[in-house]
Structures are given as structure tokens and as C-alpha cells.
Design brief:
The structure is a single chain. The chain is α+β, with helices and mostly antiparallel strands. It has a single domain (5-178), classed as Gcn5-related N-acetyltransferase (GNAT) (Aminopeptidase). The protein is built from six helices and eight strands. The chain has helices at 25-31, 34-39, 49-58, 101-116, 131-139, 168-178, and strands spanning 10-11, 16-19, 64-69, 73-81, 87-92, 121-127, 143-152, 157-167. A five-stranded antiparallel β-sheet has the order 1-2-3-4-5, sandwiched between helices. A hairpin with a 4-residue loop joins strand 1 and strand 2 (16-19). The chain is globular and about 50 Å long. Bound molecules: coenzyme A. The site of coenzyme A has 23 residues, from helix 2, strand 5, helix 4 and helix 5.
């Protein structure tokens, strides 16, 4: 797939997901909080404009989506790094947490990825004390795949994490369970 960033946009009931650009860097820097950093392995704290610019400069357009509320602008991001692990990560600014936005955005990002890329499994991990993240993973279909210690850069320590996986088969089963019987079949790769 060779889409220009400007061509990509995913609309959900309440949200718009689109690739972030360098113009979003000041907003990203403002929205990242210590809570997000502590719970999200690669995000440093304190978080500067340069950190946001550095992150944005490395991103692949259809692997990182900004999460936008039409009347409020950017509120978070969801990233699926298509590599060996196909790891997903996401965050919602503290002010906007608790409204189901992560569930809605992560669901849309997973649907986009399974529909667009030949991935068989998407994986993730959450710090054991991060109940909110674990709840989101389970709500969107992930299953627990064990627990282990993982090096967490922000803590400079090994911390216990819960591993999650979502297979294409399970994603497809959930799609079919939610589909009216006269809808078109979904791609299975
Ligand atoms: C975790 C996070 C993404 C949740 O975002 P959100 O938009 O509030 O999540 P949702 O509203 O979709 O919540 C989904 C479910 O999780 C539950 N939940 C969310 N945060 C919770 C918390 N702190 N404690 C307990 N449950 C929580 C919600 O109640 C909801 O369940 P319900 O529908 O049964 O009520 C957000 O708080 C965040 O960005 N945290 C910091 C970064 C982070 O942890 N990212 C994930 C890294 S693995």
C-alpha cells in the first residue's frame, strides 16, 4: 500500500483518526503527561517539543494515527508498529480519559490494520498495575498471553507486564459476530 498521509482518515462514531504530521508536534508535546509517560514504555519524561518532533520524524503514516475529537482536536494516538512483534501502543490525554475513546480508537486502528496488512497477530504489553490499559486490551478483543518482566526504559528497571495478543482469526470471529448477516464478508489472509 502506498498511500499519501493526507489520503488516510478513519472515521468512527465520535472520532477521526489520521496520521500525525510535524505540525502536530506542539500539541503532542502539550498532551503527553507524566501518567502517559510512566505507562508507555518509549515515551520519556519530562517530554519536550523536541521529543515530539523526534517521534514524528520516525513515524510511518499508516502505522501511527492521531486520535481527534472533531470539536476538540487531538486527544491521543494509537500506533501499530508493523515489525516482528506487530506491537500496538496507545494513549489518551488525562483530560479525555474515561469516555471510551481508547476503546473506540484502538478498535478502529485494529480493523484498519487487519483489513489492510497481511498481519496474523498483533501483540502488546501493559504494566501489571495499569488496569485501564488492560481493560482496553480486553474490551477490543486481546487475550492475555502470559506475564513476564520487561525492561521499562522510563523506570530504568525490569517491571512485571501482562502480555496480550490478538490473532487475525479472533479478530475475524468478532467482526462476524458483530456483522449483520447480509453484509459483505471480510478479508482473511
Ligand atoms: C489507558 C488509557 C488508554 C485508557 O483510555 P480511556 O479512553 O480512558 O479508555 P476507555 O474509556 O476506552 O476505557 C475502556 C475500559 O477501561 C476501563 N478503564 C479505563 N481506565 C481505567 C482505570 N484507570 N482503572 C480502571 N478501569 C479503567 C473503563 O472503565 C472501560 O471499561 P468499561 O467500559 O467496562 O467501563 C488512558 O488512561 C491512557 O492513555 N493511559 C496512559 C497511557 C497508557 O496506559 N497507555 C497504554 C499503554 S499499554
Amino acid at each position: 500500500m502506498n498511500l499519501e498521509a493526507k489520503d488516510l482518515a478513519i472515521t468512527t462514531d465520535r472520532l477521526i483518526l489520521r496520521p500525525l504530521t510535524m505540525a502536530d508536534a506542539p500539541t503532542v508535546a502539550r498532551l503527553i503527561t507524566e501518567k502517559i509517560s510512566i505507562n508507555t514504555a518509549p515515551i520519556p519524561w519530562p517530554y519536550s517539543l523536541q521529543d515530539a518532533q523526534s517521534w514524528l520524524s520516525t513515524m510511518k503514516p499508516d502505522q501511527v494515527f492521531g486520535i481527534f475529537l472533531p470539536d476538540q482536536g487531538l486527544i491521543g494516538a494509537v500506533e501499530i508498529a508493523l515489525n516482528d512483534g506487530n506491537e500496538i501502543g496507545f494513549w489518551i490525554n488525562d483530560e479525555f480519559a474515561g469516555h471510551g475513546y481508547a476503546t473506540e480508537a484502538v478498535t478502529a486502528a485494529l480493523d484498519y490494520n487487519f483489513s489492510t496488512h497481511p498481519v496474523t497477530t498483533i501483540s502488546s504489553s501493559a504494566w501489571v498495575d495499569n488496569i485501564g490499559s488492560q481493560q482496553v486490551h480486553l474490551k477490543v478483543g486481546f487475550e492475555e498471553a502470559g506475564r513476564k518482566h520487561h525492561f521499562w526504559p522510563n523506570r530504568q528497571a525490569e517491571v512485571p507486564v501482562v502480555r496480550f495478543i490478538l490473532t487475525r482469526e479472533r479478530w475475524l470471529q468478532r467482526q462476524l459476530a458483530n456483522c449483520p448477516s447480509d453484509s459483505h464478508p471480510l478479508p482473511s489472509r
